[in-house]
Please model this.
Amino acid sequence: MQKKLQSTLTMPVSLRLPSPAAAAAILLRLCARTVSAGLVDGNDFTSASTIDRFLQLNSNVTIINDGTVHTINEKYDGKSFYVRNTTLILENGGDIFAAEDWPGIRLVTSSTFNMKGGAVHGWQDKPAVELHNGQSSDETASLAKIYGGTIVGGKSSDGVGGDAFYVHGFGTQADIYGGIFIGGTGQEDNMDGMSIAVQNFASVHIYSGSFQGEMEVGTGSSIAFYGCFLQKGVSIIGEFVDGSELDVVVKTKNDGKVSLIAVSEQICETQPSMQPTSFPTISPRPTPLVSYGEMMKPSLLLLSTLLA
Model:
């Protein structure tokens, strides 16, 4: 059953507390929830959603944790979405401008994100979209498929800009078939956010898209590019199957990996792999900086010398 999120929130009803002890208990829970709501890298909510649902009425963060499918196709300004164990679809018209100190969308623990259009903007130095596992098992990994739309990291006036798309956690995977990813503008030219950041044994597979801002692949994680690409130092240059071009810096650390993968639908003049077959072939790293034609010239000279 698919649900459409409404832009008008129900006003909170007044509460009758049965006793001073009950009032103190609720106040304690509210204080604990307020502290836990701070986005500290690597931390996720782990408590039940009862108090989340109560606070949703009074906050700028909408919690979605009912295990169904929700679609966003309208504008939300100053609002963020926290998604747990639920599917979220973003369509054309769905523009999200994050709440203060939050990413636009944060998905954790067995959540799914399908982006077909629209836009997501992070708050100041925060990511626009975060995709997390939230646990220590692949069984609770979150997944994303992005086909279009725009994801923009938060702009920072006094530091590093926010990442556009942050993917984190065991088994968490994002497949990108299109869309625009823009790292947030930083205080100085060299302080812009990443277009893609992958950490802690997550993976990203990129089949197309436009990327403004460097990428980073961290601990045990991987990024794979599908098409005709060359690797020059930390730069990946080439073309996707749909003809869109790529020229991006990808930095790795702590055993992060980058793979260049040829596909059968595309013939690559500069692809160092064998000619594509019905199965993708992985390009060796580092990639040679010459095309097939340039590589053949020495061989032709050698052959003519031997035949003379």
